[in-house]
Specification:
Layout lengths: L1 H8 L4 H18 L6 E6 L3 E6 L6 H8 L6 E5 L4 E5 L5 E11 L13 H22 L13 H9 L3 H46 L13 H9 L3 H20 L5 H21 L15 H9 L3 H30 L1
Antiparallel strand pairs: 1-5, 2-4, 3-4, 3-5
């Protein structure tokens, strides 16, 4: 290709031909395809630099290796966003944790192919890490060398073990997780039964005390509460019970709710005060949730406040209306003279 192009370029004259011929190697280099990154591969060991980049994009890590004369290969851990630069081309092994690569000029020194035993141990280590994820998510509390989070440690353990020992440890992990899941299932059933009974009791207290709390969390259906519990985390279950208890304590501290009659009267008086503010043209200061003709808004506010707060709110609005009337009279007097 280069010879053919050189002959063709001689038609442009000696200087132009020499200049363009000198550019040919650069064009060929730029046209060369970039080395594909190794998705789902990890290269362990021989790190001389480790630093955090953040995010799922591995390309900044690749660029760091390309621009560093000491770098021969690299690995990017996607979850923590950590870049690791390697001083040699270390072997690549399957692991969904990472993206790796080899510096283009190191392809001749690329690592040899893995042996069948190394490939088997890479799968074994991944399966062990997946089992440990179940251990942690189910809060089984299993620990020891069989429940390591360290991929390199697990791979080394596998390579140092016989196939029979590997199978035995895999089966031990399986049985331990199965036993944990049975205990977890029974415990969850007991927890959800308790949660359902507590929730119904709180709903009954809400109704009996006429506190007026509503929503899915205040249903009196035991089955609805159990269904929620079965798909909720322990923290969500605890938050639901604690939140309802706090609301009930506030209601009971106020002596309970006073039913519809008291709040309907409050809402009607609040709307009347708003109408007066409009009629007297009191101005934009008389706005906001406490100055509205929406009786339902006043009613809902009333149901979550004690009688003293309600009376104080009515008096505050009435005082503002009195000041509005006084200001208007003063303005008329000034205008008259």
């Amino acid at each position: 290709m280069r010879i053919a192009l050189t002959k063709y370029l001689t038609g442009f004259g000696g200087t132009a031909a020499r200049l363009l011929a000198a550019l040919i190697p650069l064009v060929v280099v730029l046209a060369a395809p970039a080395l594909a990154a190794e998705q789902g591969q990890v290269r362990l060991g021989d790190d001389y630099a480790q630093f955090y980049i953040g995010g799922a994009d591995w390309r900044p890590c690749e660029a760091e290796c390309t621009n560093d004369a000491n770098c021969k290969s690299w690995t990017y851990l996607t979850a923590p966003g950590q870049c690791r630069l390697k001083a040699s081309v270390v072997p690549a092994r399957p692991n969904p944790c990472c993206v790796s690569g080899v510096k283009p000029d190191q392809q001749a020194a690329a690592s040899p192919r893995e042996t069948p035993d190394e490939r088997d141990c890479a799968k074994w280590a991944n399966a062990a890490m997946a089992a440990n994820d179940q251990n942690l998510s189910n809060q089984c509390g299993l620990n020891g060398p069989l429940w390591s989070r360290d991929y390199a440690e697990l791979t080394t353990r596998c390579l140092d073990s016989s196939p029979r020992r590997r199978d035995r440890e895999t089966e031990e992990r399986r049985q331990s997780l199965e036993a944990c899941q049975k205990v977890t299932g029974r415990t969850k059933s007991l927890v959800c039964d308790h949660y359902g009974r507590m929730s119904v009791a709180e709903a009954q207290t809400n109704d009996a005390s006429r506190c007026g709390f509503a929503g899915p969390g205040w249903t009196s259906s035991y089955n609805d509460h159990v269904r929620f519990c079965q798909s909720a985390s322990a923290s969500q279950i605890g938050d639901q019970i604690t939140g309802r208890e706090q609301q009930l304590q506030g209601c009971l501290a106020r002596g309970g709710g006073d039913g519809d009659q008291g709040c309907q009267a409050y809402a009607a008086q609040a709307v009347s005060q708003f109408v007066q503010s409009v009629r007297d043209r009191c101005g934009p200061a008389f706005a906001g949730p406490q100055w509205t003709d929406d009786q339902a808004t006043h009613y809902r506010w009333c149901r979550t406040h004690n009688p003293a707060d309600r009376q104080s709110q009515l008096q505050t609005r009435q005082a503002a209306l009195g000041q509005c009337t006084e200001d208007r009279q003063r303005f008329r007097l000034i205008f008259k003279f």
